[in-house]
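PROTEIN DESIGN WORKSHEET
SECTION A - STRUCTURE
LENGTH: 128
TOKENS:
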């Protein structure tokens, strides 16, 4: 799936996850984690990666097997330093309104990997 970097296109990703959930009979616990994490990843790609530049694309790919579903989200941005993110649970960061997305994605997905330079993320969710 290729979408333009507009927030309203997140609805298309939500619909994709709904369709996959029905087609592959994904358990509601996995569905909830999948929906939140993938939507957060796409939002990050649109807002932070592509800087809301509507002409830039976000690519959402997935692979489903008996044991897991993988999502790959990439943007056209330069990436970011995913190895040095502030911990949003530390007292000095509690009041910040940003910086929780990747923390959330990491806790929802069973596996989370970024490429170098950080403009593509892979999320794996175990089905069994």
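SECTION B - SEQUENCE
RESIDUE ASSIGNMENT:
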């Amino acid at each position: 799936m290729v979408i333009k970097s507009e927030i309203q296109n997140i609805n298309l990703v939500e619909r994709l996850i709904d369709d996959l959930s029905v087609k592959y009979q994904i358990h509601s616990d996995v569905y909830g984690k999948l929906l939140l994490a993938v939507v957060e990843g796409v939002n990050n790609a649109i807002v932070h990666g592509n800087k809301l530049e509507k002409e830039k694309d976000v690519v959402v790919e997935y692979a489903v097997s008996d044991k897991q579903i993988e999502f790959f989200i990439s943007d056209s941005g330069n990436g970011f330093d995913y190895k040095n993110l502030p911990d949003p649970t530390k007292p000095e960061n509690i009041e910040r309104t940003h910086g929780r997305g990747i923390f959330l994605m990491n806790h929802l997905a069973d596996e989370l990997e970024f490429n170098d330079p950080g403009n593509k993320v892979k999320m794996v969710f175990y089905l069994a």
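SECTION C - NOTES
The beta strands are 2-4, 57-64, 68-74, 111-114, 120-126.
Helices lie at 10-23, 28-49, 101-108.
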